[in-house]
Amino acid sequence: MNNRAGSFLWNIRQFSTLVPTGRTVRLYPSGFCRPKIVYSSWNPRKLLSNFDNRMQSSIRYLFQDALIFKSGGDGFQTKGISTATVLTVDRLLCRRRLSFNSKHFVSDNGLKKNFHHEASNEDVLTKRTKPTPINCRKLSQECNSLSDVLDIFSKAPTFPSSNYFSAMWTIAKRMSDDQKRFEKQLMFNHPMFSQLCEQIMREAKIMHYDNLLFSLHAMVKLGIPQNTLLIQTLLRVVQERINECDEKCLSVLSTILEAMEPCKNVDVLRAGLRMLVDQQVWKIERVFTLQAVMKCIGKDAPIGLKRKLEMKALKELDQFSVLNSQRMFAVLAAMNHRSIILLNECSKIVTSNIHGCPFKILISILQSCRDLQYFNIDLFKGIADYVATTFDIWKLKKVLFLLILFENVGFRPVSLMDLFMKKAADEPGFLNVKSLVSILHVYSSLNHFHKCWTHEFLEVMASALTGSLHHITSENLLNAVCSFCLMNHFPLAPINQLLQKDIIHDLLTSGDVERNVHKLHVLAACLKLDDVPCHKDTHLVLPQLSSMPSHPHAKVAEVLSSLLGEGCFSKSVWLPHNYYIE
């Protein structure tokens, strides 16, 4: 009897070790295991007094490696636990586990059973059946194609599925455009691709938020159509969980939205991002994240949010690297916000570190200055001098692209244009119709001439244009001839072809008719002013120019009238040869 009582007391102590007071496990429908505090009314003395009547066979619950015991009576109350006998849940979905210190349990028949050995057997079985987690970086290193990743997925799918898409995008970035196009087609036709898409839709609500964003980013970059159920489902889940965004997720989400076309879910998500940024803008620590957010919010963002982001950028100006300063031009242009202070400070950094600046960055800076209507002569001169110094390493087409952008912003890089003029005259082989028309437009618009090379340059351009007359369009011919005339050069063959009736009729009936009419009037005025002999008898019947819709500058007119006095200021004046002065 004493042995039985001692065994019973030992059993009571083991129950105290096995089930801590008020600590139970709740099984959630989403597959997560979370501990929950339950205030139980369990009393060991009450159990001792009613042991013979209430002690029944215990039911064992298996949740991963945890054993939960439930008495048949009201001695154990486990609130909210499922009554299933055995539950099998992938351990990857549950980060928290229960552990037991006890190795033995005594049932109501007094026999001891070793549960430690049984649990060890279950661990071995789980390890044999459960696939090993896949690391995205390791997967991208082991596989050489997108189909290889899908083949690995077909053998043993693991959680989270975002690793497979991220690995495929990493592999695709290493490929050429043709190979990437071919591999994407194989990916779409792979039998496991649709299963992978279905699995990631099922996991979207339970995987980590950053994994969800990385997978969506990979899908967008891999060219999965935006109107598919997969992309739209992930967009909706991202919307629902947007409050889980940290700084890293803000950067990824901004990159995703920037790459996507407008649609209902994208617009809603962008609006949510704006609200989130408005709340967390002062918590952003990395300049790269700040610029990604600024570039994403769009041109139609509230002006208050734009100014708040501008103030944050000015506050972090001391932390700007050279790359941050170079990118800031495109960032401000993307959000259509002209911050003179920020642009001036970034211009100083760019100008002082101009050597070694990539061509794409130079193009981006000049395009952004054009869009923002920002003129900084020190910045433009620094870029032009750098390109002129390293002129021999640049292709002429790239230099021409820079000259076109300089013309757009109204800056004339003298030394660079002189070098290009000489190079084009010495090597006219690169000239085609498109580049020829662009060169003539730039030099005539900026009114650039050189003492020694201008005549030779114009002769080479005229010769190249004459050789292209059989396949040049009417508008390109008009643009080229007008540029020649503005530079006081009149190549006969192109002019004679342009003045043919069928070409004039084509220009007056198709394309940008108003612009063509204006250029034809300019051409006629130049031919009359220069009194070209072969065109004395040429008479162009052209429609009248449309009345110049001058926007009334009332304040300017008022100030000038007050300064100059009455009778000394006139507005809307027509001059001979259709010149007009506001």
From TrEMBL:
Gene Ontology terms: cellular component: mitochondrial matrix; ribonucleoprotein granule
Keyword tags: Kinase, Transferase
Gene Ontology annotations of biological process type: mitochondrial RNA processing; regulation of mitochondrial mRNA stability
InterPro entries referenced in this protein's UniProt entry, alphabetically: FAST_kinase, FAST_Leu-rich
Signal sequence bounds: none
GO molecular function, a single term: kinase activity
Superkingdom, taxonomy of origin: Eukaryota
Domain FAST kinase leucine-rich stretches: 436-507
PANTHER family: FAST KINASE DOMAIN-CONTAINING PROTEIN 2, MITOCHONDRIAL, FAST LEU-RICH DOMAIN-CONTAINING
Descriptive protein name: FAST kinase domain-containing protein 2, mitochondrial isoform X2
Species of origin: Tursiops truncatus (Atlantic bottle-nosed dolphin)
Lineage: Eukaryota, Metazoa, Chordata, Craniata, Vertebrata
Gene: FASTKD2
